[in-house]
Structure formats: C-alpha cells, structure tokens
Amino acid sequence: MTFGNFLQQNWPELLTLLRQHLWLVFISTLIAVAIGIPTGILLTRKQSLRGPVLGVANVMQTIPSLALFGFLIPLPFIGGIGARTAIVALVLYALMPIMRNTVTGILGVDRNVREAAVAMGMTDRQILWQVELPLAMKVILTGVRVATVIAVGVTTIAAEVGAGGLGVYILRGLRQYDNNLLLAGAVPAALMALTADFSLGLLEQRFSVDTKIASRRRMVVNRIFLGAIGLIALVGAYGAWSASRPDPRSAAGAGRVVVASKDFTESGLLAEIVAQMLEARGVVVERKFELGGNLPHDALVAGQIDLYPEYTGTAYTAILKHPPITDPRVVYEQVKTEYAEKFKLAVSEPLGFENTFAILVRGADARRLGLKTISDVAPHARAWRAGFGQDFMSRADGYPGFSKAYGLKFAGQPREMNLSLTYIALSTGQVDLIAGNSTEGRIAALDLVQLEDDRRYFPPYEAVYLVRPTALTAVPTLAEVLKKLAGAISTDEMRQLNYEVDANKRGQAEVVREWIKSKGF
Amino acid sequence: MPEVADNPLVEFDDVSFTHPGSASPVISLLNFSVQRGEILVLLGESGCGKTTTLKLVNRLLLPTAGKVTVEGRTTTAWDSIALRRRTGYVIQDGGLFPHFTVAKNVGLVPALEKWDQPKIKRRVDELLSMVGLEPNVFADRYPRELSGGQRQRVGVARALAAEPPLLLLDEPFGALDPLTRASLQTQFAAITKQLNKTAILVTHDVREALMLGSRIGLMHEGKLLLLETPEDFLKSKESRALAYLETLKLPAKAHERSREERP
Q: I need a surface site. Which of A82, A185, A473, A496 has the fewest CB within 10 A?
C-alpha cells in the first residue's frame, strides 16, 4: 500500500489523533506557562527559593518520560490512564524550561536599567510589567518554545498510557513494522514541532528591539504576523474544543466497561474481541488500548480499567515474582488464588492457546545445520548474535535463566530492542537468534523456525483475561462473554489473527469482526 | 539664626552607611548640606563612597546611622516612591530603557505621575529641544540608534521631565569621549543655570568638578575631606586636593617623561 493510499483510507483517524496531539500539547503548555512564569517571577524575588525549586524542576526533567508516566498511574487525582496523566507529565516537563528562562530573563535585565527604573520612582509592580517582563520576554518565549517542542515530542510517548495522539501510529508502526504508520505518526509530529518552533520564534522576534526598529515603518509585516499568531491560536483552540468534547462512546453511565490492552498486536486483538462482543450485546465499552509495560496491571489494580488480556506465565513470574515452573495447571491455579488474595482480581478461564517464548532462527540455518531443539544451538552459539525484546532481557524467566539452562554463550551481549523489530532483524541477518512469541503471525511468512524447548525451561503462557470482580457483578453480560471465550481460540487461530494484522496490515477491528462472525459469537 | 534662614534642600547629619554583613563602613559620619540652586559636586576616586552618598538621598539606600533630610523631611519619613519622583536621577550611559522610544523614556516619570498625553508630548518636545535633540528626528528612535552623547542627553532630559526640585547625577558624562563630554558639560551648566536647579553630581574628574560645581566636596575612604567653592579648592593645601589639581598638569608631565625614557 502506498503512503498516499494509506492516508486516503485513514484520514479521519489521523485527523482525530492529530487533534488529540494538538490538544495535549496546547493544554499542557498553557498550564505550564500559567504555572511556570509566575513561579519564575517569584523565584527572582525570593532568592532562597530559587535553588531548591529549580533543582526539583531539573530532576523532574531528567526522569525518563515512560518512567514518569509509570509513577503517575497509581496516584489519585492526577494519575490514571489517559489524557490527564499525560497532561500532568507534559506539564512537569514543560515547566523547567519556562521557569528557568523566566528567571534567567528577568535576572538578565541590565543592572543599570533596573536601577534607573527604581530611581525614577517606579513601584515593584511597574518595574515588573513595564521593564523586566518586556525585556525578559524574548528569553521567556525561548523557554516556551523549547517547552512546546519538547511537549510535541513527549506527547508521542503519551500514547503508551492511552492518551492518544500521533504516538498511537508511531507505536503501532513500530510494532507492525509498518512504514506507513510510522510516517503517518512521525511526519505530522515533526511538522507540528517545526511549526510551533517557527511561529513561537516569530513571536520571540517581535520582542526584540531590532525588530521594533525595523518594523516601525513596516506595518504590513505586523499585520501578517498578527494574522499568523491569530491563526495558530485558532487552530489550537479548535483542537482544544474538539478534543474536549465528550466521547460519544463513553457517554453512558452504568453498565460501562473499560477494556485495556498491552502494546502488542495480540493483546490488542484479544481486548478488541471482548470489546466487540460486549458492544454487540448493548454494553458501552471504553477502550484503553496499547498501554506500555506493566501499566495495564497497575491500572487494573487502581480500578481505572476493568479488564485486560494477560498470560498466566507472565502473571506468575513477572507480577507474582515466583521462579518459573512448567505445569500449566499449577501455574493457572496459583495465579487465580494469589490474584484474588493480593489484588482482589478475577482470572478468566484460559482462552485455549499458549503464547510462550519461541526461540527462533532462520529457516535456512535450521535446515543447513539440522537444528531442531534449543540444545542443538549450543555448539554454534559462540559465533551467533542474539537479539531480544526488552521484556525478555529483564524478566525472571527470560535471558539470564534461559542462557544458563541451555549453557548458551553468544558472540557479545545480546542486542536489546523492540520485540517486533527482532523478527525483521533475524530475517535480514542482523542477528541469528531471537526470542519471539509462539503465536506471532509472521513466523511462517518470514521463513523462521521455532526450536523446541527440550529442557522445558519456559513456563506455560496461557492466555486469560484479568478482570475486576466489581465489573463482573455490575455487568453480567461480561461474565457471559468471558464464559463463551473459554477455550475458544486455538494457537493456529491466534497466529492467523496476528498475521492478518501484522503481515497483511489489516485493521484490528475488521479482523476481529470477521473472526467473531466465523465463530458465530 | 542662620540655620533657619538658609533652609537647605538636602542635609546630611552624622550619616554613616555600612553594607549588611560588612565590618567596615562605606561612608562614616558625613555632614553637609545642599542649598537650593546650588550644584554640589562630590569628587573622589572609585570606592570612596560618593555613589553611596547619592543613593542615600533618594532612598535607594537608608543610612545605618545619622539622618538624611530632603526638603525638611528625613528620608525614612518619606514615601520612597514619592521621594524618587521628586528627584531626577542620571547615571552613566543614561540607564535608558532599551525597549522604550526616546519620547517614552523622557516621558516616563510624567506618565507614572499620570499626566495627560498631550501635556507629556509637549513636555518631551520641550526637553528634547532643550538638550539639543530635534524632537521630530529623535522622538521615535530607540536608545540603540543613538550615539553615547545623544543617549546621555536623553538621560538628562528624562531626569528633568517631571520638574523635580533636585537632580542627582552619578558620573553622567563619564563614558563619553572628551569632546562630546566637554560640549555636554557646557550645555548642562547652561541648563541648570537657566532652570535654577539644585543638583548633586558625583565625578572623579576634577576638571568637571571645577567647571560645574558651586561647591566641591572632596571624598576619600567614606569621609568628606573638604567642602569648598571652586576658587577655594584651587587654593587648597590639602594633600589629596593637591594631587587632584596635579592631574590637570599631567599632559605636560607625561610629555617630559616620554622624553626622559628616550635613550
């Protein structure tokens, strides 16, 4: 599909994401300005506060954005899933440059000028408004410009906490290795950053005395300029207005279910299945898809979402922190009991398929070297490069235990990268072995071969839904739907669904709709 | 008695000033008064306390001991804003607001005092003409577009704008080249005479002191060594006064020295 075709087909969605992005940037910069400039002014008056406040703001800015989102999720009032969390994080980021530049700008006003102002009998307020702020405005606006450009960038990460925006396309594009999606997310974001940079740069210039001198005789330029600023304000306001309109889907009160997913295709598909089945039965569904890392778990425990798809092995090792074991039944029962005790959460019946780590090599290598099991790799490993997703590198049942169990030593430290990209890296020969997902649709398409876990190292990863019991009682339809889905999805089916989305680039909703129809649900 | 009769505009009474946290005073036990219509020049080298003395007059600083009286009221009793608006202040290089036009700079204090616009404009035009700047040419310029001498003229015009009874000038001509300085000094002398202004002027240039001062106060290490008319200053036998007078002959000496150094 060409980029042009893609845009034609996805134009309405792109516009929505663009509007969300604009709104997040606009509102968070606005709030940061409203807080940052007065605070900056205060800091120029209270020297003792300056160090500590700027220090805290500085530290705030060094927190990686995804980590900051993570910290915010469980907090009451400011945290949660969605736009609010994103705005809080964006404001925290934008605050520093605005505050610092306000302080620098005001303190940078020529001593002689300030002294003259005092000696002329100007009050503190008059000095601030007539002398300090106008002279510092250029520097302050530089701060606002930097903050806005940062906000445009960080907002792409806000998609990880379900705040929407162009990051949705970027994350999806990374996952599906789809350049159209990447471009559709990245290009508008870059253009937005450039536009913000340019227009705020113009505004900045207006406060320079040189411009005043030059434009004294050129009123036309002034008009054009004011027009441009007006237009930008208008676009921002429109974005704000349209984004703040209530989403018609979440208008209903009782009987609403918030369905979430992790940030990979299969999780999205499983969540979409529940969502569509609920909607078909008249239940209002709110989707909080594509949440990064352990955010869905935190959000579920905090009551911000009602349900998300999970794997028993992940719950057992990553959440409950047990050492990996291999009996699927034991793992499932243990997870069910402990989730009820520790988190007051319910676990659905298994959906019928496992998505375990699949150790993959190129088909050509497997055939040439006669590789069948992971143990067969050991003699070749020293000359091989491995590439693993972040998840696999860090979890208890991941790389450290895996390499020890099979006595594998690779050439150098494994490359740690986005899981979705490892498939491409393997098929294009940039790495020689990866740990993919057994239900990955592209395994066959890319001629990759899964090696057998002959030492039974990986724990079972049965797919289940984790649910808040309150949602089950409030919406009886939900329990009914989950019951229908028990044992309903085979590994082959799951692989096919993933393939439709990842390799054939079809819409998730459409693929799920067809599947539900074919199953007669 | 004479004290009632001469009614000074500014009076220093045993005034000392020490910066907070500092052990040594910047000025100590200063006593002098400035009569209406006179120009008192405080002469001294950098750090002798002459600028501090000036700042004590318009309450940019408050004395740590003694009292400063302006128009019969101590500076502590004055509202600082009201006092400063009755005191024109000129500093080196003008201290003009770079983002204000010349007209707006000059009209600053009248605007703060809420004069109406036509009156401010008339006053600005009048002052610019008085300091030798054609209003039609200069009113809309920004300080950056002016030469050093022109900026200083605007600085003086701004200080005079609201017709303050008292002018304070801190090395107003210090940053100018000698020719511009001389011309501005002459003009300033004419203006103050014409307006019968009272002024305190701080300088390290003895030539300027002799030219502009009705009395010269020689300061050293925070103390007033002597306070004389220019005529008496020229006859003074005080060693620092002699040293200053010596500088007037410096060009001749430098000439001699350069000849001695030649092999």
A: A473
Average pLDDT, stretch A306-315?
A: 92
Tokens 């243990």 found at: A334
pLDDT, tens only, B92-115: 877 899 999 999 999 999 999 999
Q: Where are the beta strands (DSSP E) in chain B?
A: 10-17, 27-34, 39-43, 65-70, 73-74, 87-91, 166-170, 198-203, 215-220, 223-228
How far is Cα A442 from Cα A176, in angstroms, rounded to an integer? 10
Taking CA–CA distances from B55, the nearest residue in chain A reads A119
Q: What is the pLDDT of residue A175?
A: 66
Q: Which residues of A fall within a CB distance of 8 Å from B87?
A: 119, 121
CB contact under 8 A, A116 and B97: yes
Q: How far apart are CA B150 and CA B94, in angstroms?
A: 9
Cβ-contact A107, A46 below 8 angstroms: no
Please answer whether residues B200 and B10 qualify as being in contact, where contact means their C-beta atoms are separated by less than 8 angstroms.
Answer: yes
The answer to whether residues A394 and A442 touch, using CB atoms and an 8 Å cutoff, is no
Helix (H) or strand (E) segment spanning residue A450: strand A448-451
- Residue A105 CA to chain centroid, in angstroms? 35
User: What is the predicted ipTM?
Assistant: 0.87
Helix axes A265-280, A508-519, angle to 10 degrees: 60
- Determine whether the interchain pair A115/B87 forms a contact, defined as Cβ–Cβ distance below 8 Å: no
For the segment B132-170, what is each residue's pLDDT rounded down to a tens digit? 899 999 999 999 999 988 999 999 999 999 899 999 999
Q: Which residue in the set B91, B99, B109 is minimally distant from A112, CB to CB?
A: B91
CB A256 within 8 A of CB A285: yes
Question: What integer pLDDT is reported at residue B257 of this predicted model?
Answer: 60
Residue A501 CA to residue A439 CA, distance in Å, equals 13
Q: How far, in Å, CA of A216 to CA of B145, rounded? A: 13
Q: Which residue of A has its CA nearest to B59?
A: A119
Task: Pick A212's closest partner by Cβ from B82, B93, B142.
Answer: B142
Under 8 Å between Cβ of A40 and A106: yes
Q: Which residue has the tokens 């990955």?
A: A440
What pLDDT does residue B5 have?
Answer: 43
Question: How far apart, in whole angstroms, are the C-alpha atoms of residue A261 and residue A291?
Answer: 6
- Measure Cα distances from A312 to A33, A151, B263 in Å: 46, 37, 101
| DSSP assigned state of B70 | E
Q: What is the C-alpha radius of gyration for chain B, rounded to an integer number of angstroms?
A: 20
Q: What is the pLDDT of residues A79-131, one digit of tens each?
A: 666 788 888 889 988 998 999 999 999 999 998 899 999 999 999 999 999 99
